[in-house]
Amino acid sequence: MGNSKAPEQVVVVGAGMVGFSTAWYLQERGVQVTVVDKEGVAAGSSWGNAGWLTPALTLPLSEPAVLRYGLKAMLDPSSPLYIPLSANPQLLRFLIGFARHCTPGKWREAMEVFTEVNRIGMDAYDELAEGGNLLTTSHQTTTTAAGTAGGSAASGTTGTTTRAGTTTTLTAAATADGAVREPTKVADPFLAGFVSHKHRDALVHEFDAVRRAGGTVDYNLVDGDELRALEPTLGSGVRAGVQIRDQRFINPPKFMESLAESVKARGAEIVSGFDVVDIRDDGTGVRVIAADSRLLQADNVVIASGAWMGKLARRFGVKRVVQAGRGYSFTVVPEVMPTHPIYFPAQRVACTPLGDRFRVAGMMEFRDADAPLDPRRIKAIIDAATPMFKGIDWQDRKEEWVGSRPCTTDGLPLIGATKSSRVHVAGGHGMWGVALGPLTGKMLAASITGDTTPTVMRRFNPLR
């Protein structure tokens, strides 16, 4: 899947977890990188998610229970899985394809793939924390817009086009190792809460399936009182629980800021407000064109723009529908701040301590990626979470957010080269872009530079 000649300069479209992880690993291999985004660092689903790094729960989205949930429930705005009535042909194509994969056999097949990536996914996070082996240089690329000479990529002025990295100013290394300073945190343990033993049995059934697929899950069953002994903010509605070991979590805004700082310190240029509308392979390199006619040239390009990647990748043979599966979140400050991530599987509510605040997230809404936040979805999360907690003023909430997670019909991401060996894609992870982002970047960087990639990467072929 790799190129015969490693590129010297690569443009990464998308400043989220997947995009920056790819940039970081490309830098490990001596590639100069420019990261562009239509908004800025972590402006999409990398910012407001739960930040879980949980191999035990990183499972295929296309589970058979989704179909059993019922169409009527899915059309209810208070449902954890919401599909608004729409005549959008892309959404209809996605739903038909998604339904075909919501079978026990298809789920088991996808679970075998997830078992493989879950086994090695956290190693990439450890490598980010340890830093690279190469001394790096910092450079600023002068990239001009089409028209006349002298424009800057960030200014929007006109000028002749130069290849990204052709005109550079080298300075001393900002860091010697490029380590990402914001740490991952061990969930000791990770908690799941339930209103009944019957609801808990559904998660235990999933864990059994993980083990049958070759994965490992270290957990023990507890009652509600044992959970409240660990987290006093849990309410009387929690009657059964599970403690899960060997899981981690991050503070998403802080981690993304730290990752971006590392990539920049190692020599990358980060260009915000660069809305890519077209990519062209000119036979010797690629041209990346913004809505305002600014243009970047490089040897290769990586499309890692999340739920928007399909528009750019389609002309290069990527036919898989990438549908926005929107998640919502907000933060509150409980009277007693939790210290463990807490999951309520039946309610599809995910909660994460962020130090001075508590993030509450949930929902899967198949809708246009650019649709505005729907307040009914925030209310649905509150209604589902309220019986499970005490000591939280749900009206005093902040950071209300909606983000569009890129979902595929078979639940597997798209990672690798397209019909053009110069154009690569990385996305379609659904809810697991944060958990699998660094591993994705590591695999794709190896592919782009012609190195050996894990066998499992074949399952993510964008042209499948």
Describe the structure.
The chain has 464 residues and is an alpha/beta fold. It is globular. Helix 1 runs parallel beside helix 8 and helix 1 packs parallel to helix 11. The strands form 5 sheets. Strands 4, 8, 9, 10, 17, 18, 19, 20 and 21 form a 9-stranded mixed sheet that branches. Strands 12-2-1-16-23-22 form a 6-stranded mixed sheet. The chain has a 3-stranded antiparallel sheet with strand order 3-11-7. The two termini are 13 Å apart. Helix content is 28%, strand content 24%.
User: What spatial form do the alpha-carbon principal axes imply?
Assistant: globular
Determine the structural class based on helices, strands and strand pairing.
alpha/beta
Number of strands: 23
Radius of gyration: 22 Å
Q: Can you count the helices?
A: 11
- Please report the distance between the alpha carbons of the first and last residues: 13 Å
Per DSSP, what share of the residues sits in E-state strands of 2 or more residues? 15-25%
Helix content: 25-40%
* Biggest sheet overview: 9 strands, mixed
Arithmetic mean pLDDT: 89
Low-pLDDT segments: 135-175
Topology:
Layout: E1 9-13, H1 17-28, E2 32-37, E3 52-53, H2 65-69, H3 71-74, E4 81-82, H4 89-101, H5 104-130, E5 138-141, E6 168-171, E7 185-187, E8 190-194, H6 197-212, E9 219-223, H7 224-230, E10 240-244, E11 247-249, H8 252-265, E12 269-272, E13 276-281, E14 286-290, E15 295-298, E16 300-303, H9 309-313, E17 323-332, E18 342-344, E19 349-353, E20 358-366, H10 375-385, E21 398-407, E22 414-417, E23 423-427, H11 433-448
Parallel strand pairs: 1-2, 1-16, 2-12, 4-20, 8-18, 16-23
Antiparallel strand pairs: 3-11, 5-6, 7-11, 8-10, 9-10, 13-14, 14-15, 17-20, 17-21, 18-19, 19-20, 22-23
